[in-house]
Specification:
The chain is mostly helical. It has a single domain (140-532), classed as Amino acid/polyamine transporter I, CATH 1.20.1740.10. 61% of the residues lie in helices and 3% in strands. The chain contains 18 helices and four strands. The strands form two sheets. It has a two-stranded antiparallel sheet with strand order 1-2. Strands 3-4 form a two-stranded antiparallel ribbon. A hairpin with a 5-residue loop joins strand 3 and strand 4. Helix 8 crosses helix 16. It is globular. Mean pLDDT is 74; it is low at 1-18, 48-125 and 536-540.
């Protein structure tokens, strides 16, 4: 018996009258009845429920007919997973400790990608060719998914962690970094849980299910602003690092025809963003960025080692001083929360990374999340302590700028930092593109022209803005105070409260929402106030 499909069931009539029912061991074969008179028998030829007729009776369509007819375009609400890896019988029986639960949201991907390859998009002759195509699509193992998530976390924000400790104070900075890591870890996993509870296959869809059109607008705006702000920030970093490194490595480069343009900030941004980041942005599958993410993580490890080693070798004359507030609790706690939040928020990438897993289960994704946030917290803690304990009250927003410009090891770290931003920028472009497609073109099949137009416009517009400003601090602070807080501390717990019954977890979610709202309001007022007063305002790069 094939138990994979949806079967039609018929009941065998029971015996009636006063005569005792014949048994299975009766001598007369015609008198035999089943040992279980009311048992259900299954039709060995599976049928698929098609819908309901006006009088309420179910209509059915054979599986073979559905494969070859246009009726499959009207299937509503039925999702058939043909990969046997997802439907082993053990999935229904083994739920003990250490066992993977049955995959959740097995069809989840970037929505435009999933639609582009679904059997209802008209690209494939039948459902079997679609299944084969899905198996051939690039997918991530746990290691590759970890690389993508860790790279999304350990981005430009890591370089500002020493400054966050200066703003918050050493003691409160350590507590904040650990506490916010735990909260971020929980809310990342909460996004997948919320998607399962709501039946939506995207962060946007979940919030829309919970709060309607206003929720969709809020999450779309938060996701897009955070990702696009990251793209701009990464472009600024490229312009602030690579030209200076090239000039230090090759002092006469400025006088070399054509190549000398690379020592100019604007020319370097254009060449490297369009030459490296833009081609990576054109990929449709985030899994293909795993190797680039691996190189980016190696670069960040070089930066970490550089700050630790050069911090020890820094002369006492270049070191900073420490006061009691700097060692305990300082006045810039909320600003520090914004900087740390900007570094750790990767919620806009979480479902894309979940969908890239070869076997997308909540257990496997949780493992990736815990490992990624744990390693990221360790890296941030090390660079924060190394930088802050070296420069104290002199710590800058970019700790690499505290070191001399002619330091060879630091220049190598600057080069790695700039190259890391080039490979992280496409991850943010993925998010911007999917947000726009989900909002303006929901349910549309993949369109290559639209894909190219959106990808190009996003990269070019972010590049233009990065050419116009050098103020990386304002980008970090404002984006971290608004969209980062909304995505990490407000929207995921709010959706969880909406989708679940009251329990101790909902009270935890309520506390996180209250915390996020306070941080958003206070940090935003502080950031806007500094801009109005001209403190850290946008500067033009000539």
């Amino acid at each position: 018996m094939n138990g994979r499909g949806i079967k039609s069931a018929v009941r065998t009539p029971s015996t009636t009258g006063g005569e005792p029912p014949a048994t299975a061991f009766s001598s007369n074969p015609q008198d035999r009845t089943p040992r279980t008179p009311q048992r259900v028998r299954f039709d060995p030829n599976p049928t698929i429920l098609h819908g309901l007729t006006p009088n309420g009776t179910a209509t059915t369509t054979s599986f073979d007919t559905m494969r070859t007819s246009e009726e499959r375009d009207s299937i509503d609400g039925l999702d058939f997973e043909l990969d046997d890896d997802y439907h082993d019988d053990d999935d229904y029986n083994d739920h003990g400790a250490g066992q993977h639960r049955r995959p959740l949201l097995t069809g989840i991907e970037a929505p435009s990608v999933a639609l582009a390859n679904s059997p209802w998009a008209g690209e494939f002759e039948d459902v079997h060719s679609w299944a084969e195509s899905e198996r051939q699509r690039p997918k991530s193992g746990l290691r590759s998914a970890f690389m993508n998530m860790a790279n999304s976390i350990i981005g430009a924000g890591i370089i500002g962690q020493p400054y966050a400790f200066r703003q918050a104070g050493l003691l409160s900075g350590i507590i904040l970094l650990i506490g916010l890591t735990v909260v971020v870890d929980w809310t990342i996993c909460l996004i997948v849980v919320n998607s399962k509870l709501s039946g939506a296959n995207s962060f946007q869809g979940t919030v829309e299910k919970c709060f309607g059109r206003s929720g969709l607008i809020a999450i779309s705006l938060a996701q897009w602003l955070f990702a696009f702000g990251g793209m701009v920030a990464f472009g600024v970093v490229v312009g602030d690092t690579i030209p200076h490194v090239l000039a230090a490595i090759w002092p006469g480069l400025r006088d070399v025809p054509v190549l000398g343009l690379l020592t100019d900030r604007r020319a370097a941004i254009v060449v490297f963003v369009l030459g490296v980041s833009f081609p990576l942005t054109l990929y449709r599958d985030i899994a293909k960025l795993a190797k680039a993410s691996t190189l980016a993580l190696i670069s960040m490890m070089i930066i970490l080692v550089t700050v630790m080693v050069q911090g020890i070798l820094t002369p006492s004359a270049e070191r900073g001083s420490f006061s009691t507030p700097l060692l305990t609790i300082n006045s810039g706690i909320f600003q520090a929360i914004g900087v740390i939040s900007f570094a750790f928020v990767c919620h806009h990438n979480s479902l894309l990374i979940y969908g890239s897993l070869k076997t997308p289960t909540i257990d496997r994704f949780s493992r990736v999340t815990h490992f990624s946030t744990g390693v990221s917290m360790l890296a941030c803690m090390l660079i924060a302590l190394a930088g802050f304990l070296t420069f104290g009250d002199r710590t800058l927003g970019n700790v690499l700028n505290n070191f001399p410009a002619d330091n060879v090891m630091v220049n190598l770290a600057r080069l790695c930092f700039g190259l890391n931003m080039l490979t992280t920028l496409p991850l943010e472009a993925f998010v911007c593109r999917e947000v726009m497609l989900n909002y303006y073109f929901p349910g549309e099949p993949f369109n290559m022209n639209m894909h190219l137009i959106l990808s190009t416009s996003l990269v070019v517009s972010a590049m233009v803005l990065s050419l116009a400003t050098c103020d990386l601090g304002s980008v970090f602070e404002l984006v971290g105070a608004t969209s980062a807080c909304a995505m990490a501390y407000i929207l995921p717990p709010l959706c969880y409260i909406k989708l679940t019954s009251r329990s101790w977890k909902t009270y935890v979610a309520m506390a996180i929402v209250a915390f996020g709202c306070c941080v958003m309001v206070i940090s935003t007022f502080q950031a806007v106030g500094k801009m109005i007063k001209g403190e850290g305002g946008v500067t033009q790069c000539m």
